[in-house]
Amino acid sequence: MQRLFLLSILSLLIFSCDDGDIIVSDFNFDQNSALNLCEFEGDRKVLHIITESNEAISLTFDKNILENVENVINPGTFSVTINSSNRINYRRLNGRVESSNYFCQEIPPSEPTVIEEFTSTTGGNVEFTITRASDSGVDTDGDGIDDIDEQGPDNNIFNYDTDGDGIPNFLDIDDDNDNVLTNVEIEIDIDFGIELDTDGDGIPDYLDPDDDGDGVITRYEDLNAFEEGTPEEPVLNPVNDDTNDNGIPNYLDETVSESLIIEAFRENRVSRQFNITVVFNDITLENTTTERTIRLSSQGFGVFTFRTDDEILEFR
Fold it and tell me: Which of 41, 229, 259, 311 suits a disulfide with 220, CB 3.0-4.6 Å?
């Protein structure tokens, strides 16, 4: 009840009519509302929600969201200006319907009936704030280590980059740039609860560029990289290289110190999930049949999830 009372008071402040009347509404959505996303041909997208009070709100906009997150380590914000292509629609309906069934088709259904409708005029903007999904148990790079455990000594997940390649460890499938994936080197000794450290130097293999301590970095002990591949596209996998056929790969065998200069690295492919919060700024909505208007100086619309699939993060 307290929330509805506050929302009603807020409505008195932000809803006004040109003729001096007041529109009172629960306006039952905010920056925490769960939004749904429909994508149509081209870059046209519709964010939408139908609330428990049968308010149908949609934002139709033309924007390539992917370009704002692809190969970006720490996404921030972007905005769209409200105009004929980017527009907001607010409807009061006389019944309940699923949001996706109502908005995710070119022509919306005739039922339920629209009691009242407002559409946006030109002006104002919609701001999108992008944050990474960071719930417990999230392992963005799939290396076997949860993101929360790859945030480093200063507890800043974006600053912890042990191999200095510009990709933080929580996004790096190979934390030491030795071309042996972290999920291969992260073996745990169950009996002792310690990370694998082949050369006993106190640095676990998944963070050690020279795993066997023979003075040759692991990446350079992949002697058949060009034999299996080509000069342009070598096969980068030191795990498969065993020169003396003793069953131990060169990079873990301190008796083998032959080297081959290899400055190529495996592609850093990840799939990521982002939460995007949407806020309306300085928006005016006009009633489609009367002269009444709704003015929003700043109103949270909600949040939606956006994913990338098999995205390549390039070294910086």
Answer: 259
What is the Rg, in whole angstroms, of the alpha carbon atoms belonging to the chain? 27
Q: At a CB cut-off of 8 Å and minimum separation 6, what does 72 contact?
A: none
CB 171 within 8 A of CB 210: no
Q: What is the mean pLDDT of residues 89-117?
A: 92
**One-letter identity of residue 63:** K
Q: DSSP letters along 2-71, please?
A: HHHHHHHHHHHHHEEETTS----------TTSB-EEEE-STTEEEEEEE-TT-EEEEEEEE--GGGGTTT
Tokens of 162: 């042990």
Is residue 191 domain-shared with residue 265, that is, in the same domain? Answer: yes
Q: How far apart are CA 150 and CA 146, in angstroms?
A: 7
Same domain, 98 and 173: no
Q: pTM of the prediction?
A: 0.84
Same domain? For 189 and 283 the reply is no
Nearest to 285 by CA among 107, 57, 132, 103: 57
**Cβ-based neighbours of 59, under 8 Å, separated by 6 or more:** 46, 47, 48, 86, 87, 88, 126, 278, 301
Looking at the DSSP bridge assignments, the partners of residue 312 are 269
Name residue 116's beta-bridge partners.
92
Please check whether residue 238 is in contact with residue 221, taking contact to mean a CB–CB distance below 8 angstroms. Answer: yes
Residue 310 reports pLDDT greater than 90: yes
* Domain contains 298: yes
Band of residue 22 on the pLDDT scale cut at 50, 70, 90: very low
Residue 138 within a domain: no
**Is residue 224 a contact partner of residue 241, using CB atoms and an 8 Å limit?**
yes
